[in-house]
Design a protein that fits this description.
The chain is an alpha+beta fold. The chain contains 15 helices and 34 strands. The protein has an 8-stranded parallel beta sheet with strand order 23-22-21-19-15-14-13-24. A 7-stranded mixed beta sheet has the order 25-26-27-29-34-31-32. A 6-stranded antiparallel beta sheet has the order 1-2-5-11-10-7. The longest helix is centred in the middle third of the chain and has 20 residues, at 403-422. The relative contact order is 0.10.
């Protein structure tokens, strides 16, 4: 894979063409990029040549650009320099996607692109060229002789969300795993409630309360399996229920089903625990170790690994009557893609391969009790993966191949095996960053990466998922809050993700009555407005603004959620039969900017759903403050 660290190469001249005002340049040997015959498609083709990594640059003048969005942007939505590490990524099937959008201060696309290499590994770099005065995106790809890569360039000027969604639709095509009804209802997760301290008795009691609140899905997280203790993953690999916690796991699942909830169980099939019985049998296929997690990472390029993962997951679902799986840490496979990149670059530069750094503290032990590794920080975590194998002996597995391609084979077999057991009702939860367009055929519940109690982070992550597509069910990260907080404060966790499927993860039995009333009210509101919230058009503003106001709308209804009180929501009150205005702030009012006058009825409720006032009003066009209690609701309907 090409070494993108050489700044002299980034802005070199090469064979270039212009597409929608974007200069597309091939920087390595081979024919110049070409455009498809049909005019205006904005699709370029790049042809691979023998034994040469293909490096392509897309660049535009800076003009009014203010930020760059990509699926794994997180908080980094600003303009990075081309020499900064924040602009360097390895992407593949289970980590993000070769997709991005440079935008201006009006939230309009300046340079938006998507490559069709969703499976195979691509090295990306992006950033501002200080001397060139341009913004560049570099794609390094190992294309075989005669192999084509197609890169679609969107016309400039479209809104970021619409532009990205259009690119994703063309990337993923029609291969999307259907979502059953149970994947689009509020869920209860055991993770933040119990961490690994779960049991059949506790889960069944919580499931009954969750059903009363309006949840239709229970997700049993880490802790159910034998050897799950101390916050580590030392027991992963055997995937048998802990007989002390779940004496009869199948009967337990039936009990939860009897309460009206579907049931998913957590599994991390690529983690091989140091204390697992499977360790001796599979150790040769897991050279990378996580000392602080007390486990190794299985290499999916081995056929033995793929067979083990598929057989284990299918057996688990079939034996215990599960409705699907919450599959974790698939992005861990990317350590093998990055290891290959380091080897190839070391070979070209004449040097050896530097071993990965050991981030474990001196004398380091496992994780502290109840502490979970940060799921969303895949890049930093993988940089700390240790390889205890001898680099001279390790090499690539005999069946070799690209990590992304191996994961595609694994996930295809896994999906087909699970579908044979559960059919169209199958649910598979995937979390960021392995939620790109190429993964939509392998999972139908796309969850935000872990962000405990971070309402703003949950909002941003779920909106990133929603921008990429609305066909799958976008789920929030599990929602937790302080049980001693006021219902107004606790509600902000839920209100921050109204545009997604909420996953509640607080102990329900000891929940104060006011918080229980709040949760019941807002979950009922969510169910009533689910279709407009999760399938309607979304307007969330510029990505770097972190979405202070989010508007979901369909033909007759709109839901406006104010996350910052003094940001105006622009609305036409005559267009909708109902406008629901949600105040997700601590202020007593929100700001509307109305395009037309209207005579309306206002029905206002507080955070727990208690009526505050009902009145008629004549709304004049222009800015207007509307009194709504903190974490409260105002329904606006024609008078």
């Amino acid at each position: 894979m090409a070494n993108l660290a050489d700044p002299r190469r980034l802005w070199a001249d090469g064979k270039a063409i212009d597409v929608h005002g974007v200069a597309v340049t091939r920087l390595t040997a081979g024919p110049a990029p070409t455009t498809l015959a049909a005019a205006g498609q904005g699709v370029i083709e790049v042809l691979g040549v023998e034994s040469e990594t293909t490096l392509v640059r897309l660049d535009v003048p800076l003009d009014g650009a203010v930020g760059f969005w990509h699926p794994a942007a997180g908080w980094d939505r600003h303009l990075t320099a081309d020499w900064m590490a924040t602009g360097l990524r390895t992407v593949g099937l289970v980590d993000s996607a070769p997709l991005g959008c440079l935008y201006d201060d009006a939230g309009r696309a300046v340079l938006a692109f998507a490559s069709d290499r969703l499976v195979h590994t691509t090295r990306l770099r992006f950033g501002v060229g200080e001397r060139a005065g341009r913004f560049g995106v570099w794609l390094a790809m190992d294309l075989g002789p005669g192999e084509l890569c197609r890169i679609r360039i969107a016309p400039p000027g479209g809104a970021v969300a619409e532009t990205v969604r259009s690119l994703v639709r063309r990337q993923s095509g029609t291969a999307v795993l259907p979502v059953p009804e149970a994947g689009r209802v509020p869920a209860y997760s055991t993770w933040y409630s119990y961490h690994q301290e779960v049991s059949a008795t506790a889960v069944e009691a919580e499931a009954e309360l969750a059903a009363e609140l309006g949840c239709g899905l229970l997700i049993l997280d880490d802790g159910w399996q034998r050897g799950a203790y101390g916050g580590s993953y030392a027991g992963c690999g055997d995937w048998e229920p802990d007989p002390e916690k779940f004496p009869d796991f199948g009967a337990h699942v039936e009990t939860v089903h009897g309460l009206g909830l579907k049931y998913l169980a957590w599994i991390a099939p690529l983690l091989l625990g140091d204390d697992s019985a499977a360790r001796d049998r599979l150790a040769a296929f897991a050279p990378h170790a996580r000392r602080e997690w007390r486990c190794h990472v299985l290499d999916p390029r081995h056929e033995e690994v793929r067979r083990f993962v598929v057989d284990t997951c299918v057996r688990l679902v079939d034996r215990y009557g599960l409705d699907g799986l919450k599959i974790d840490f698939l992005d861990a496979a990317m350590v093998y893609a990055e290891d290959s990149t380091r080897r190839e670059e070391g070979t070209r530069s004449g040097g050896g391969v530097a071993p990965a750094e050991d981030a474990r503290p001196e004398g380091g032990a496992g994780l502290a009790e109840g502490v979970r590794p940060e799921n969303g920080a895949g890049r930093e975590d993988r940089a700390n993966l240790e390889d205890h194998a001898n680099p001279e002996d390790r090499g690539r597995p005999e069946d070799g191949g690209d990590v992304g391609e191996s994961m595609r084979v694994l996930l295809t077999e896994l999906r087909d095996g699970l579908m044979a057991v559960r059919g169209a009702e199958l649910m598979i939860e995937l979390r960021q960053p392995y939620t790109g367009p190429g993964m939509l055929e392998f999972g139908n519940l796309l969850r935000a990466g872990d962000c405990p109690a971070d309402a703003a982070g949950n909002r941003v992550r779920t909106l990133d998922l929603s921008v990429a597509g609305r066909e799958s069910a976008v789920h929030s990260d599990m929602l937790m809050w302080d049980p001693q907080a006021s219902p107004q404060v606790a509600a902000r966790q839920l209100l921050s993700v109204l545009h997604a499927v909420p996953q509640i993860s607080v102990p329900l039995a000891p929940l104060p009555s006011a918080q229980r009333a709040m949760a019941g009210f807002w979950l009922a509101f969510w169910r009533e407005h689910r279709d407009v919230l999760t399938r309607g058009a979304l307007d969330a503003g510029r990505p770097d603004g972190l979405h202070p106001v989010v508007i979901a709308r369909d033909a007759t209804r709109a839901v406006v959620v104010h996350h910052v009180s003094d940001h105006a929501a622009t609305l036409d009150p005559t267009r909708f039969a109902e406008i629901a205005v949600v105040n997700n702030t601590g202020a007593e009012r929100v700001l509307l900017d109305l395009t037309h006058p209207a005579a309306v009825r206002l029905d206002v409720r507080d955070a727990c759903g208690t009526p505050v006032r009902s009145e008629t009003a004549c709304l004049d066009p222009g800015p207007r403050w509307l009194a709504v209690p903190p974490s409260g609701l105002c329904l606006i309907r024609p008078a």
